[in-house]
Amino acid sequence: MATSTTNALAGEERSGPPTKTPDGETGRRRSALLHRLDLKGAPYAFVAPFFVVFAAFSFYPLVYTAWISLHHVELATLDSMQWVAFDNYVDLFKDSRFWNALQNTITIGVISTVPQLLMALGMAHLLNYRMRASLFFRVASLVPYATSVGAAALVFTMLFERDFGMINWVLGWVGIDPLDWEADKWPAQVAISTIVIWRWTGYNALLYLAAMQAIPAERYEAASLDGASRWKQFTHVTVPGIRSTVVFTIVLSTIGATQLFGEPLIFGQGPNGVTGGADNQYQTLGLLLYEEGWKNYQMGRAATVAWAMFLLLILVFAAQRLIRRLRPRTP
Amino acid sequence: MTVNSLPVRTDAPVRTSAPKTPRTGRRLLRIRAGRQHHAGPLAYVLLAVMAIVSIFPLYWTMVAASTDNTRVSQTPPPFLPGPNLFSNLARAWDEAAMGKAMINSLIVAGVIALSTVLFATLAGFAFAKLRFKGRNILLTLVIGTMMVPPQLGVVPLFMMMSELGWSQQLPAVIFPTLVSAVGVFFMRQYLSEALPDELVEAGRVDGAHSLRIFWSIVLPVARPAMAVLFMITFVHAWNDFFWPFVVLDMTNPTVPVALTQLSAGYVRDQSLIMAGALLGTLPLLAMFIVFGRQIVSGIMAGAVKG
C-alpha cells in the first residue's frame, strides 16, 4: 500500500519542477545537485534535533555544573559568581550531613535494588509459564509503574502510619509491636525502599520475561535430557540466558538509586521533607542537593553535591567492573 | 527515576540490509505466548498474590478517597469504599489545585510525547536505513547519553531557565525533555526490522526526496511503534518529578508537584490527600486499562534480548 502512494506522489513530483524551469539542462543539473545534497545532508538533519536538544539541556548543564561548583553562587543573585576554587568541596567533605546522606543513599540503594531485582526474576519466571489470563497478570504487574512517585509515596505513607497504618495493624497479628516507620532510621529506610520496590519490580520483571522468551527452547530440551531439575534449568539455562538484560537493569537501578529524591521527600512530610526526617535519618544525596540549593540558597554547594553524586556513580561502576574482572569465570 | 525509562537492546549489531523475511510491524509488537511448562496451582497462587500486591495500594487509595478522615484513621482500617468518593474528588480538584495541575500535566506530557515520537522516528529512520559518515559513532553516542542522569545538571539548567524567563512556566519542563535517547534507539530497532530496504529504494528511484520518503513510506510502517512510544513517553513525562518540582511552584504545578502540597498541611486531611493521589493517577490508569496490551508489548519489544 505504501509503495503505491509513493508512486503516486513521485509521479506528481516528476511533472513538477522540470516543466517550470525554462532551461531544461540547468534545471536537471540543479535537481541532481539537490538530490545529492538530500542524500548527504538529510541523515544529519534527521538526527540533529536529538543532538541539539541533548547538547543544550543535558550535556552543557552537566559540564557547567563542574564550573559552578568552584564558585559561590546564591539563588537570589544568580548572575554574580564568586570564584572560590575547591572551597565548596572542602566544606562538603567536612560536613557530616554529606557523609550521612551518602551513607543513606547507599543503604537505601542496596535495600531497594537487590530484593527488587531478585523478586523481578522470580516474577518473570512465573509469568513465563504457559497460562490463562497471562495478559491480566502482565498488565497488573505494570500498574505500580503507572503510579507517580507522588501518589505512591502518599499511599505508602498512610499504610506505614504509626498509629492506624495497615502495616502495623497486620504486624500486630503476629505479635510485633507497632513500629515508628517515620521517626526511626532503619524502619524509615525500609519503608522508602518498599515504595521503590513496589514501583519498579513489575517493570523489571517484564524486561526479564522478554529476554527469557528469546532463549531457544532447544537449550531447555538439552538440559532436561541431561536430567537437569527445574531449579538447575533455571540457574543454568534461564539466568545465563538473560545475562545482558540483568546487567542492563542493574545499571539502570543503580543510576536510579543514586538519584533517589521523590520517595524520601514525600514520605511523611511533603515539601518540607528535604531534611529527610527530623534527624536526617533518611536524607539522600538528592535531597541534600535540593536543600543546599533551594532551601539554603547555596547553588555553588548544590552543584558540588551533584558532582559528588556523579563521582559516586562512576565509582560504583568501576567497582562493578573490577569485581567482574576478579571473579573467576565459571565454565 | 527518569533515567529508568524504556529499555533497549544495546547489543544488537547495526544491520545494513533488510532481514530475509520482512516481518510486518504489528507482529513485532505482539505478545508471544510462553513456550515453557504449563503453570501449576502454586504458580497461579503466587501470581495472584503478586497481582494483589500490585493493585492493592491503588485500590486502597480509592477506598480512603471515598470515606472521611475519621473513618480512615480507625483500626482496623476500612476495606470497602465509602460514600464520599465524588465529593472528595471535587474537593481535591478545587482546593488542592489538582484541576490546574491535571491540565498542565496533560499539556506537558502531550507535547513531550509528541515531540519525542517525531524526533525519535526521524533519527531512528536515519540510523536504521540511511547511510552517512559517522553513523555508528553517533549511534554509540546516543546510547551513551542514556547513562547520564538528568538530575546532575539541575543547577545550571535552573539558571538557564531563569535567564530565559521560563521559571515557574511549562516550557521549562517541556524543553529539556523534547527528545529521548531511548526513543531514538527503540525506533531504530523497530524500523531496521519492520521497514524493508526495497521500499526506501523504490521511493528513491521514483525521485522522492528524503523527507517525502519519511512522510509517505516510513511513517505508515512506523505507526504501531510510534503509538507505543507515545504512550510510554507520556507515562514518564506525566510522572516525572524532580525537575518539575525544582522549577515549578504551587501556583502552576504539574500533578506530581501538586501532590506534594497535599500532604504539607499541619492537619492532614487523609481522604483529601488520597483523593488527590487517585485523581492524578486516573488518566494513566485509564490508558493502561484500554491499551495495556500495547504498553506491555512495547516494553517487552524494547527489552535487551539474550
UniProtKB/TrEMBL annotation, chain A:
<keyword id="KW-1003">Cell membrane</keyword>
<feature type="transmembrane region" description="Helical">
    <location>
        <begin position="106"/>
        <end position="127"/>
    </location>
</feature>
<dbReference type="InterPro" id="IPR035906">
    <property type="entry name" value="MetI-like_sf"/>
</dbReference>
<protein>
    <submittedName>
        <fullName>Sugar ABC transporter permease</fullName>
    </submittedName>
</protein>
<keyword id="KW-1133">Transmembrane helix</keyword>
<dbReference type="InterPro" id="IPR051393">
    <property type="entry name" value="ABC_transporter_permease"/>
</dbReference>
<keyword id="KW-0472">Membrane</keyword>
<keyword id="KW-0813">Transport</keyword>
<dbReference type="Pfam" id="PF00528">
    <property type="entry name" value="BPD_transp_1"/>
</dbReference>
<feature type="domain" description="ABC transmembrane type-1">
    <location>
        <begin position="102"/>
        <end position="323"/>
    </location>
</feature>
<dbReference type="InterPro" id="IPR000515">
    <property type="entry name" value="MetI-like"/>
</dbReference>
<feature type="region of interest" description="Disordered">
    <location>
        <begin position="1"/>
        <end position="27"/>
    </location>
</feature>
<comment type="similarity">
    <text>Belongs to the binding-protein-dependent transport system permease family.</text>
</comment>
<feature type="transmembrane region" description="Helical">
    <location>
        <begin position="44"/>
        <end position="67"/>
    </location>
</feature>
<feature type="transmembrane region" description="Helical">
    <location>
        <begin position="299"/>
        <end position="319"/>
    </location>
</feature>
<keyword id="KW-0812">Transmembrane</keyword>
<feature type="transmembrane region" description="Helical">
    <location>
        <begin position="139"/>
        <end position="160"/>
    </location>
</feature>
